[in-house]
Amino acid sequence: MVSVICVGTVVYDQVFWVPAIPSTPVKVIASAHGVFGGGLAATAAIAVASLGARSAFFGRVGRDVAGDALCGLLAEAGVDVGSLQRIEDGQTATSALLVDPTGERLLAAFPGRLNACAEWLPLERIAESKAVLCDIRWPEGAIAAAQTARRLGIPTVLDADLAPAEAISKLVRLGDHVIFSERGLTAYTGLQNLSKALRQVRQETGALLGVTRGRDGVLLLQDDRFETIPGHRVSVQDTNGAGDVFHGAYALAVAEGASVLEAARFANAAAAVKCSLARGWHGMPRRAAVTHLIKDACDADFAR
Asked: pTM here?
């Protein structure tokens, strides 16, 4: 039994660690360089595997060097890649990241050239899972998977990042748990106030709504009630992929039967642990570290 099926994008990341992120065009000498995997759904799938559960990734890569590398990295991390399609004459999505000493980043992304068709998806496999996570970057695949999950009564978590409003609108109506990034929510609603933005989205769906806010944690809107899960203070090494880890951990907690608040606390801690590590997919959070961080936070609250 697969705990979580993750549907969406995978990206070949080249990371450069630099003294500072430049604000003007200039040559920057990096202190280190690494090649990693990235992408919303793929990183979420690896997070699920790192946290001790089975995950499968449904997505697309080109039949190229980057695609070969990503297939190997996902499989090495314990993700089921039997439903990862290799597209002839396609180009795998790639990106270049500059990361400064505080962990902040500058990202340049090439989305690849891949057939968007989702008719090949083995949707019958969704019945094997306990939750489905969809990212917004491949709407055709996400919509097909979310529709199937809804028909089967399997909970769906939507990672609602920046994307065309039409695609988000369709998926918001299909997801059971719709969690935005700050940028994604602001772009979709046109509102800077996150509470008002979530209430605006509430008019479209009865799903659990949320927005991740980096070091400030996550804001949730369940039914007509707001809940705030505060962020954890950790020594930040790299924020890249933290939001994807949040979504993967949240979907896993949902698959395991956790309540919304329990799932959000678990995911929030998993994202914080990821920020304290600096090795891309090789530095993913383990369940013991996440549990320990949650316990420390509870002990600190009790002491106050």
From this structure: 0.91
